[in-house]
Design brief:
22 helices, about 500 residues
Length: about 500
């Protein structure tokens, strides 16, 4: 299986090359030239397997250069009991209903990004060897909160790698910031930027495609790669948990094998819901893909009108991982829906970069409406949903999951579809956002000042237990406190990579 570029389909790489490179030099993303197909019998066989076995089976179909034993070693290391106590992606069914929450936050950083970023380092280091590359991979990351910590943890002290993370100052939760700034490891570096996530993401993409910086790295035995979902090696593991969720739903008698399952995803960069789209194309019986946004509702508008317009007010919300106006992975969807028309995709991306908007036309808009239902939810409604879910379902969730739950109710109200079994993707532990969750479930109660006192307060009020990785943060030393302007990011990258003296 070869991988094509969304902006130049003539460009073709092996799976290992695509994982090492991360993004094309022209800014395009890599996608597989075809998708494997799964029958009902295949799904029945997957139902009998553990999560690790399901992952090994699916990942192998996309990585032909890897041996069965290599993939087995990768997934067993990524999803071990030590890293995911009690299981990697449990399905929490709400009693007496056909709804369940796919909890993807039981890993070392308490967010769904662990599901991919515990596996990616293993895929990348093996890909470096398969491409006969003896360079150090400089993993450059822009994060809206969760990717950064998950990438730092995944690549911590991995040989022949350096991991450099940028996050928006005042654009992540206090707990997310502390997770990143206390990160251990000799090959890690973190820097805040004066701006929002889109500024960080745009800055990182420009650095990736900057020929002078790339040459500087090459002259020093290094090359860029990515741990953001622009890297196919990051997106691939996300396909697995939708197959696993369907199998678990069948095992829990939520549905009969072959029956459609609706999927609700809170998303900002579109990678998480794109993985569900790919699973659907591979034969997984997914019904409606329900895309949930917060007040930064650029995706809601696009999926209903076919017009993508980032020229709007940017909101800093209590669901910060979705505070995004430029959804990178949408490019992969457009490439697929246009029949791999890379010229058209490249034209739209140029329009986006120059004018901040593009329109895909009525025909493609109709296809989008058929595939997706989209909705958005502001902070007030998010907090109300957290409260109501805890009160009525005894289920404590984080703000991102609450956005998804609210948009699902919007879907039911708009369509009348209460009967289709539905999985709502739960992307983070509520304890990563203890202040916002506390305010939602106990608005009249005065919050403690200290972040960790808030964690204890939330635990006492709700009779739930904070995950160990959150509780243990209090004892860790803060290592990183630097902040830069967006224009300074290239220089900071060289400094963090050890190629320029620190200012």
């Amino acid at each position: 299986m070869q991988y094509k570029c969304t902006r130049n389909k003539a460009e073709s790489l092996s799976a290992a090359q695509a994982i090492v490179q991360g993004i094309s030099e022209n800014g395009g993303l890599f996608v597989p030239e075809s998708l494997p197909s799964y029958s009902a019998d295949d799904l029945k066989q997957l139902c009998k397997k553990s999560y690790t076995e399901r992952a090994a089976h699916i990942v192998a179909d996309f990585l032909p250069e890897f041996t069965v034993e290599e993939i087995k070693e990768c997934v067993e290391s990524a999803y071990s009991e030590q890293k995911f106590p009690g299981g990697a992606a449990p399905l929490h069914r709400i009693a007496g209903s056909n709804q369940a929450f796919l909890e993807l936050w039981h890993g070392p950083t308490c967010a769904f990004k662990d599901m991919a970023l515990q596996l990616l380092p293993h895929l990348l280091t093996r890909s470096l060897k398969k491409t006969k590359c003896d360079k150090t991979a400089v993993i450059l990351v822009a994060t809206s909160g969760d990717t950064g910590k998950a990438a730092l943890e995944g690549f911590r002290d991995v040989p022949d790698t350096k991991i450099l993370v940028f996050y928006p100052d005042k654009g992540v939760s206090a707990m997310q910031q502390r997770q990143m700034n206390t990160q251990e490891g000799e090959n890690v570096a973190v820097c805040a930027i004066e701006g929002n996530f889109d500024d960080a993401q745009t800055g990182v993409k420009r650095i990736f495609t900057n020929p002078e910086i790339r040459k500087e790295l090459e002259d020093n035995g290094m090359l860029f790669s990515s741990a953001n979902s622009i890297n196919w090696g990051r997106l691939l593991p996300q396909i697995v948990y939708y197959f696993s969720a369907y199998c678990d739903a069948a095992e829990q008698r939520m549905l009969e094998m072959g029956q459609p399952l609706n999927i609700v995803v809170p998303t900002g960069n579109f990678g998480n819901i794109l993985a569900a789209y790919y699973a659907k194309k591979m034969g997984l019986p997914i019904g409606k893909l329900i895309c949930a946004s917060n007040s930064n509702n650029v995706l809601t508008e696009f999926l209903s009108t076919g017009v993508y317009d980032r020229n709007r007010k940017f909101y800093t919300t209590i669901s910060p991982s979705m505070d995004i106006l430029v959804s990178s992975n949408l490019e992969r969807l457009l490439f697929d829906l246009t029949g791999c028309n890379s010229d058209q995709v490249a034209s739209w991306m140029t329009e986006l970069n120059t004018t901040g908007r593009y329109s895909v036309g009525s025909e493609l808009t109709a296809v989008l409406k058929d595939l997706f239902f989209s909705g958005c939810c502001d902070d007030a409604q998010t907090q109300k949903t957290i409260y109501e879910m805890f009160l009525s379902k005894n289920y404590l969730c984080d703000p991102h999951t609450a956005v998804a739950s609210d948009v699902y109710e919007q879907y039911v109200k708009a369509t009348g579809d209460k009967s289709t079994p539905t999985v709502i993707v739960s992307t983070a532990s509520p304890y990563k956002f203890a202040d916002s969750v506390l305010e939602a479930v106990a608005p009249a109660q005065k919050q403690e000042e200290d972040d960790f006192a808030k964690v204890q307060q939330l635990s006492s009020l709700t009779s739930t237990v904070a995950p160990a990785p959150i509780a243990q943060l209090q004892e860790k030393t803060i290592r990183f406190q630097n902040c830069c302007e967006v224009a300074q990011m290239p220089q900071v990258v060289l400094q963090m990579a050890g190629l320029e003296p620190k200012a």
